[in-house]
Write a structure and sequence with these properties.
The complex is a heterotetramer of chains A (307), B (456), C (220) and D (612). Chain A has one domain. Chain A has 13 helices and one strand; from the N terminus they run H-H-H-E-H-H-H-H-H-H-H-H-H-H. Chain A is globular and about 55 Å long. With 456 residues, chain B is an all-alpha fold. Chain B has a domain of 172 residues. Chain B has 19 helices and two strands. Chain C has one domain. The longest helix of chain C has 29 residues. Chain D is mainly alpha-helical and 612 residues long. Chain D folds into two domains: 125 residues; 391 residues, no CATH class. A two-stranded antiparallel sheet of chain D has the order 2-3. Chain D is globular and about 110 Å long. The relative contact order of chain D is 0.08. Classes of the chains: A mainly alpha (307), B mainly alpha (456), C mainly alpha (220), D mainly alpha (612). Chains A and D meet through strand 1, helix 4, helix 5, helix 6 and helix 13 of A and helix 14, helix 15, helix 16, helix 18 and strand 1 of D.
């Protein structure tokens, strides 16, 4: 229990740093020095001190959206077996609460974007909604995959309680579901093949477009939320991939954080190697992720790697 | 007691004679008094059971039909009193109405009371003769054409019925029994010894003959024209009264069927019933004229009645006929009101009646819903009992056809009653006063439905 | 005695053939009248005089029959024809040669079919004659254009039915016979009035042009 | 005593019908009647609860009827004759209260068809509009077809030698028509936009469930559970996916809500399907979660859909139109309605803080217990159910964000002036929302009562598990509320020291004067997704591109009519019309043809008589 809390605090602190790592990796590939690791924290503190400008056409939804998204992401964080020790708050069915908390965060961002009556934010919202349909389907298939393996519906047992043998018995399907999860991570956290965070051309933005009009503390909450979301997905990826039953608590903590940073590095590498997909190809990639996960599930069922 | 029954026939004849004499002056008064007298007499001898040589009242169903017809006639006369004030018609047609309506009632009563096949045939032929001039009330070309077709087709049909009666007598002779006059009770007790072959031909001819008057499909062609061209009151009487009497003819013939032939008769009745139900359904779907739609609904219900008679027997048929007559009478009277107000029978040109004449529109919609057999109406229960006892293929087919009829009628009625007011100038005031008799008709039907539903 | 009956029955067959072939209306009316008279006479011929002379009822029925069908109906029809101003049936729907052929084929068929049907006490010609008369009546209604010819066809149809009754020696009571005759009389009377009004309303009495009332959707 | 609530409602209905001349009195009588009947219903339920499933199906009516009554007091001002409205409103409520309590089939069938007729009168209440003819006709046809099929169903029980499947199929079709199963749902998107908002609130909140109740009470007792489970599951999957995909493609706000009712009834039938499958393979957890899922979803759907429809009613009264693309910016003019609508929409798409999630969580757990049970059939059913549920949840998010974004957020598009919202209308919405929040927190306590109601033995261990889960779910929803208030408070007081918030036009990347026409409309939001599903939606587009150098006008219109109606029902009706046109030729008007037909028929009958 104590170790889990430690992991939680660590996650809350290090989440924005992941962006720093990604930017550093991209800079390294581009031969640049790149922004500081803690740049996101500095931005957040700067923004927290600023006043915010609210558009005349926006209502209370615009003000509530960032707050709601942050709260949702924080609650989603509580169920994850951070540091490979099971979270005290986990219960049978918390995987679905996790999935739907992400959904709640998404709808609040979308409504906040639509509230400003600006065409770019509407465009971002429309694209976000389109991708969310397929990515949520893939996430659920992943949960089914884990449920079949661990025959339970609790995130703790699903991710950590599967014992070490699952790599031997179901290696190909594990690999496929890791790839599918990576695709979902790229979509949910709006990384390059789906959406380019650094672009200044509003027409191409998706996530950035939705938060165009936010300012001051709201923008800070949003950035911090984005960091949390990246941390959540990388934590799940590491928990999925690393069989960490035999580790001692301290080494487990180390493995988890390094796993998250490793994912950040991997995201940075993919960003520097790939350009943004054409807008019509993104759904195909998402459908690809969905089919990969479906294949993993089918493989698991047929190959009988089930307890 | 036979004199009481004879009185039932002579009273309307008397009113007809008086009306003829005074050339249509107090025609309304005469009509009303005759109908009240006739209704009183009918109620008085409701439960007398007597079997005279020519006329008599033997079974419960005939008593019901007698009271139904005379109650119907009374309702139509009350309607006529206020309707004739609103309808501007020539003295001559008023005179013809005064004569022919009571005679029409007299002949219908004779049909119900007759205990002799010959007398029944003469009475049915006489109903045709006396109802033909009534169709001519509006003196239009179309009414004339309707009357000519009515006369010719019905007379040919009734001729076949006479041939059927002769064949029946011949079947009795071939069966070894010498009969002098065609008394029904005599035929009933020699029922078994009738020659089956000849009886089948006799039944076929009688079914064709009385089926023409009843509106079974291959012989129905006169019915839509006659019922839509006649004025509201007359078509109500035609549709609600006359069809039941002609159905009585078929019932009396079928009652004679010896068991060897019984199965053939029910099969024939079912086939003709289903045929008329199907044809009426297809004619109602794309119907452009609301009175013809009601006429086809009569054909449909006569089809259902014949299937009911073949499958479930006489009691269900009686309830079906009573309910159908009550609702159809009020529907035709309402249709008369609509025609009086809008001047046209084209469904496409009428719309928005709820706004203009709400009382008539609501009653018309309620009537059509009831005639399509929706629970409060007794037709729902009879159709339900029919579905329970009919074979599977018949039940499936009937449900499909009933749905088609419902779809067709509701589309027409809703397009007339709902929507914005149409460009026709509608003088609704007179029609709105004429709604009391239809209301009584519908309430009577609902009462029958509730009473029958409770004890089902 | 049955030789006379057979003579009457063959006369009926002849009348049917002539009816289907003649175009002049007055001629047709006289033929139908002749049918009526023969019908009146037939029960008397059928009565076996040896046993007893027929009662007043039989005489009365025969007399009324002859008077109504032989005399009264033709008068009514001729008056209606005069009022309607119609002399002859110009171009009927089925053509005279065709109708003659059809009626003769029908009578041949009736005769051939009924030879197996031997009924005691009834001459073999009775049923075919009645059947052919009924068929001719219907055929005239279907194939002729003028309204008056159609009512004539109906009368022939009615005579066919009466012939069947008389030939089979079925008596169904004097009052019923009277009622039937009264009905037919009133019917023809009403048809006469109807024809007169049609001719006044439409200036023609062609039944096939009387087709305003249809369901085929297009409003005439 | 049991039928007292229905009796009072019926009496109130007849009374207000009688005094339809004086509108005001009718309104008072009607409203009082509804509230009285509902209190009587609740009293009878508390004192002597009828056993079995029927108690549950009375609950939505008892909740929605008073709310809709209060709403319609303001809604029907100036629309039509209040006497008729209140009369038939109470009569419909009476039939809906009486239906769950009737046990034998024949009286049930009679009250069932009466309900159809009374609600039909309500659907065609504002009869003045010409375009109302078709929806009213379609609705009446659906009721009548359902009634006829149920008559046949009743008749089949008397016949011997009838195959079990046919008996089962006709019963399912008869009740499915009212419940809105996939192919039989076409009356729903037609009737709801046409009906007054409070009526469509009752119809979709409470009346549709009665269809499902009919199936549970009358059709299923004789059939083996696996077959029932699988049919309901498959129908539920098709219905929910089809319903929600069409929902987000609609432009009319009430059509969106109608299709979302189809989706929700699909989810409920999936839950019931899982229960029966669990029962067939006696997997206790699946049964418990299935029952809880369907019960919670029925109640939650009634609460939330009622709020949404009342909100739509208020929008219609305020702006006079229901087309999402024409409206916009209503949150500023009708704030309370807007917020309630948003909250209910978020809840109905199954997202956590509200009770929608409780129902969906239970169904997910039923599916997952199927997946983890190891029985192959259950596993595939569980995977199918879970996958379809998540896809429908995602699409529901799309549909409702379009509905909220299009109508309430942003700047007003074509409809600029809008009346003030009247308290009569948004007070019921607030009560329903309050009830749904209470439902979240009362779920753990009501769960054992619901399971006891169904009285299947040996479920107590699973019930304890379910209770614990519900307790957790409720606590996390509470946590979400606390966290939000916490963050808001700290943002309000701790962070902002002295920096005040100004307001200005939306920063639209340098556009000087952004106008409302530049805004993303509802149909634009879902245009990408609509293309994704186009092979299923078959959207009908009417485009005239701008021609010439200086194009004078260009227009783009699109609509997505109901798929099953366009490709299945319309051809069937057209074929019937074609056949009837051919049959009409027989009544050609020629007397000769008529007599010829008669003679031919006669000869045929005589020959048949001689031969047979």
């Amino acid at each position: 229990m104590m170790y889990w809390l430690l992991n939680l605090v660590l996650a809350l602190l290090l989440a924005p740093v992941l962006f720093g790592v990604i930017n550093k990796v991209k800079a390294f590939f581009a031969g640049r020095k790149g922004p500081r690791l803690m740049q996101t924290w500095y931005d957040i503190f700067k923004l927290l001190r600023k006043g915010s400008v609210y558009s005349t056409s926006s209502t209370w939804i615009f003000k509530f959206a960032p707050v709601g998204t942050l709260a949702a992401l924080f609650i989603a964080m509580l169920f994850l077996p951070l540091g490979f020790c099971s979270s005290p708050l986990g219960f049978q069915g918390d995987a679905l609460l996790f999935l739907y908390m992400l959904g709640l965060g998404r709808i609040l961002t979308v409504l906040g974007a639509l509230d400003t009556a600006s065409s770019f934010e509407g465009m971002g919202a429309a694209r976000e909604l389109q991708f969310s349909v397929v990515s949520e389907g893939t996430m659920l298939l992943l949960l089914i995959f884990l449920a079949i393996q661990s025959s339970s519906c609790e995130l703790n047992t699903m991710l950590c309680g599967r014992g070490n043998s699952f790599w031997m018995s179901a290696a190909p399907s594990m690999l496929l579901s890791a790839v599918a999860l990576y695709v979902v991570l790229l979509t949910e956290c709006c990384r390059v093949p789906v959406d380019d965070p650094e672009t200044h051309l509003e027409l191409t933005m998706i996530h950035e477009a939705m938060i165009l009009d936010n300012s001051g503390p709201d923008l800070a909450f949003i950035h911090y939320g984005a960091g949390l979301k990246l941390w959540i997905f990388s934590a799940i990826l590491t928990a999925l991939v690393v069989p960490a039953d035999l580790l001692s608590p301290w080494s487990a903590l180390l493995v988890m954080t390094s796993g998250c940073f490793l994912t950040a590095v991997f995201v940075g590498i993919t960003e520097s190697m790939m350009a943004r997909y054409r807008f019509l190809k993104v759904p195909q990639m998402l459908m690809g992720g969905f089919c990969v996960e479906f294949a993993a599930l089918a493989l698991l069922l047929i190959s009988g790697g089930v307890k | 007691m036979v004199s009481m029954l004879a009185l039932l026939i002579t009273v309307p004849m008397l009113t007809a004679v008086i009306a003829a004499v005074c050339r249509g002056r107090f025609c309304r008064l005469l009509l009303l008094s005759g109908s009240i007298l006739h209704l009183g007499l009918a109620l008085y001898c409701f439960n007398t059971r007597i079997d005279g040589r020519w006329i008599g009242l033997t079974s419960y169903s005939e008593a019901i039909l007698l009271v139904l017809t005379s109650g119907l006639y009374f309702a139509v006369c009350c309607y006529c009193c206020s309707w004739l004030k609103a309808e501007e018609c020539s003295k001559k047609s008023l005179w013809i109405l005064g004569i022919c309506l009571p005679l029409f009632l007299a002949t219908m009563t004779l049909v119900i009371l007759s205990r002799n096949f010959g007398v029944m045939w003469v009475a049915i032929e006489a109903t045709t003769l006396f109802s033909a001039p009534l169709i001519l009330f509006h003196r239009s070309g179309r009414a004339l054409e309707a009357m000519w077709k009515y006369l010719l087709i019905c007379s040919v049909g009734i001729g076949l019925a006479l041939l059927g009666t002769l064949f029946l007598a011949f079947a009795a002779r071939m069966g070894g029994v010498e009969l002098h006059d065609l008394r029904i009770s005599e035929f009933l007790n020699i029922k078994e010894s009738l020659n089956p072959g000849w009886f089948k031909v006799a039944f076929v001819l009688a079914l064709a003959g009385y089926g023409t008057k009843m509106g079974l499909v291959p012989f129905h062609t006169w019915l839509p024209d006659a019922h839509s061209e006649a004025p509201g009151a007359v078509s109500a009487l035609l549709s609600a009264g006359l069809l039941n009497c002609s159905f009585l003819g078929v019932i009396r013939f079928a009652a004679l069927a010896p068991d060897k032939v019984g199965e053939f008769c029910t099969e024939l009745l079912i086939i003709l019933g289903v045929l008329s139900l199907a044809t009426a359904a297809f004619f109602i779907i794309r119907q452009g004229d609301f009175k013809r739609m009601l006429a086809y609904s009569s054909i449909e219900h006569m089809g259902i009645a014949s299937i009911l008679f073949a499958v479930c027997g006489i009691e269900m048929t009686m309830i079906h006929l009573v309910a159908h007559s009550a609702i159809k009478m009020s529907l035709f009277l309402l249709a008369g009101n609509l025609l009086l107000a809008c001047g046209t029978r084209q469904i496409s040109r009428i719309s928005g009646l709820f706004g203009v004449m709400p009382a008539n529109a609501i009653l018309f919609l309620a009537g059509v819903i009831l005639i399509c057999g929706v629970p409060p109406s007794p037709l729902f229960f009879t159709e339900l009992v029919l579905l329970c006892q009919a074979p599977l293929w018949l039940a499936l087919l009937m449900v499909l056809l009933l749905f088609m009829v419902f779809a067709g009628m509701m589309k027409n009625v809703l397009s007339m009653t709902m929507g914005k007011k149409c460009e026709l100038e509608i003088h609704a005031a007179p029609a709105e006063r004429l709604i009391w008799v239809p209301i009584a008709g519908l309430c009577a039907a609902l009462a029958v439905g509730i009473v029958f539903g409770v004890n089902l | 005695m049955n030789m006379a009956i057979d003579l009457v029955l063959t006369a009926f067959l002849g009348i049917c053939l002539m009816l289907s072939a003649s175009s002049r209306l007055v001629h047709c009316i006289r033929l139908v009248a002749l049918q009526g008279i023969l019908l009146g006479v037939l029960p008397l011929l059928m009565w076996n005089w040896s046993k007893a002379c027929p009662g007043a009822e039989i005489w009365g029925a025969a007399f009324v029959n002859i008077m109504v069908k032989g005399v009264l109906l033709p008068i009514l029809l001729i008056r209606a024809m005069r009022k309607a101003g119609v002399k002859r049936e110009l171009e009927p729907l089925a053509g005279y040669s065709w109708s003659l052929l059809i009626v003769s084929v029908a009578s041949a068929l009736a005769l051939w079919l009924s030879r197996s049907l031997t009924i005691p006490g009834v001459s073999v010609l009775a049923i075919p004659a009645a059947a052919v008369t009924v068929f001719t009546g219907l055929f005239i209604i279907v194939s002729r254009r003028k309204a008056i010819t159609q009512s004539l066809g109906f009368l022939a149809f009615e005579n066919g039915i009466a012939l069947f009754g008389a030939a089979m020696h079925l008596e169904y009571g004097f009052f019923v016979e009277l009622g039937i005759l009264l009905d037919v009389l009133v019917l023809v009377f009403v048809m006469g009035i109807a024809v007169f009004q049609i001719s006044r309303e439409f200036e023609h009495i062609d039944a096939d042009r009387l087709n305003l009332l249809t369901d085929t959707g297009e409003v005439k | 005593m049991i039928f007292s609530s229905a009796g009072i409602a019926a009496a109130a209905g007849v009374l207000s019908l009688l005094c339809c001349r004086r509108g005001g009195l009718a309104g008072v009588v009607g409203l009082a009647g509804t509230i009285l009947s509902v209190t009587a219903g609740i009293v009878t339920l508390c004192t002597s609860p009828p056993n079995g499933v029927s108690l549950l199906f009375m609950l939505p009516t008892l909740i929605l009827a008073p709310m809709a009554a209060i709403h319609s007091r303001a809604y029907i001002k100036g629309h039509g004759n209040p006497g008729i409205y209140w009369g038939f409103f109470n009569l419909t409520v009476a039939t809906m209260l009486a239906l769950p309590l009737i046990k034998e089939f024949l009286p049930f069938l009679i009250v069932w068809e009466l309900m159809g007729i009374f609600s039909f009168v309500l659907v065609m209440f504002n009869y003045k509009a010409d375009e109302l003819k078709r929806p009213a006709w379609i609705y009446l046809l659906a009721c009548e077809a359902g009634g006829l099929l149920l008559m046949l169903f009743y008749a089949l029980s008397f016949k011997s030698g009838v195959s079990q499947e046919l008996f089962y199929a006709i019963g399912m079709a008869g009740f499915g028509l009212k419940a809105g199963f996939p192919l039989l749902h076409i009356w729903l998107p037609e009737a709801h936009p046409a009906a007054p908002a409070p009526v469509s609130a009752i119809m979709s909140g409470a009346m549709i469930n009665l269809g499902l109740m009919g199936i549970l009470v009358f059709v299923f007792p004789g059939v083996d559970p696996a077959l029932c489970g699988w049919t309901l599951l498959i129908l539920g999957c098709i219905g929910s996916l089809g319903g929600i995909v069409f929902a987000f493609a609609q432009d009319n706000l009430k059509r969106v809500l109608a299709y979302s009712s189809i989706e929700n009834i699909g989810i409920i039938s999936m839950a019931v399907g899982c229960t029966f499958l669990g029962g067939a393979f006696n997997n206790n957890t699946m049964i418990v979660f299935g029952i809880l899922g369907s019960v919670f979803h029925i109640i939650n759907h009634a609460l939330l859909k009622g709020t949404l429809f009342l909100g739509a009613g208020q929008v219609f009264c305020a702006t006079g139109t229901l087309s999402i693309d024409k409206m916009g910016g209503l949150m500023k003019r009708t704030p309370v309605t807007g917020s309630c609508f948003t909250a209910a929409a978020v809840g109905l798409s199954g997202l956590p803080p509200f009770n929608g999630f409780i129902g969906e969580l239970m169904i997910y757990l039923a599916a997952f217990s199927g997946i983890c049970s190891g029985i192959v059939q259950l596993r595939f059913a569980g995977i199918a159910a879970a996958l379809v549920l998540s896809l429908t949840g995602a699409c529901a998010v799309v549909a409702f964000s379009k509905a909220i974004g299009g109508t309430f957020l942003g700047e007003p598009r074509k409809i600029t002036e809008c009346q003030k919202e009247s308290p009569w209308m948004y007070v019921p919405m607030l009560c329903l929302l309050l009830l749904s929040v209470i439902a979240v927190f009362s779920a753990p306590f009501t769960a054992p009562a619901i399971i006891k109601l169904v009285k299947t033995p040996g479920l107590d261990t699973a019930v304890a598990g379910a209770e614990k889960i519900l307790f957790y779910a409720a606590s996390f929803s509470a946590l979400f509320y606390i966290l939000c208030t916490l963050i808001l408070l700290c943002r309000r007081f701790l962070l902002v020291r002295g920096a005040e918030n100004e307001s200005g036009p939306t920063w639209d990347c340098g556009y000087a004067k952004p106008s409302a026409r530049m805004e993303y409309t509802g149909s634009a939001i879902i245009q990408n997704l609509a293309d994704l599903f186009n092979s299923f939606l078959q959207i009908r587009r009417k485009v005239d591109e701008p021609q010439g150098l200086f194009p004078s006008k260009a227009s783009f219109e699109w609509e997505s009519p109901d798929g099953s109606e366009r490709f299945f029902w319309a051809p069937v009706f057209k074929f019937a019309a074609g056949v009837s046109d051919k049959v009409h030729k027989f009544q050609s008007g020629y007397l000769h043809v008529y007599v010829l037909i008669m003679t031919v028929a006669l000869i045929a009958m005589v020959i048949w008589a001689i031969v047979s």
